[in-house]
Amino acid sequence: MRTPAPDGARATESEALPHVVYCAQTHHQCDDLVFRCMICVTVFGWLGLLARSTAAKDIEILILRHEVTVLRRQVRV
User: What is the pLDDT of residues 19-49, one digit of tens each?
Assistant: First the structure.
């Protein structure tokens, strides 16, 4: 078991992330997996939009417009 770093000292990368092992091939496979997951999330999001009623879409647009208005007010202040 490792002792923690003294106050003010920074842990090395291997101490900070002991479970992370870098390998070029594994990193490439991880990028592939992340990309595929992003595609799946996007496609399922589109399918979810198709399944929604027009009223639900209109309500979401109103809520988003309200959020934009609130954020614009915050930026001006």
Answer: 555 555 566 677 888 899 999 999 999 998 8
Q: Are 15 and 2 in contact (CB under 8 A)?
A: yes
- The Cα–Cα gap between 38 and 40 comes to 5
Distance CA 55, CA 65 (A): 15
CA end-to-end span of the chain: 52
- φ and ψ at residue 27, rounded to 5 degrees: -60, -40
pTM of the predicted structure, to 2 decimals: 0.43
Alpha-carbon separation of residue 44 from 33, 38, 48, 71 (angstroms): 16, 10, 6, 28
One-letter amino acid for residue 50 of the chain: L
Helix or strand holding residue 41 (H, E):
helix 24-51
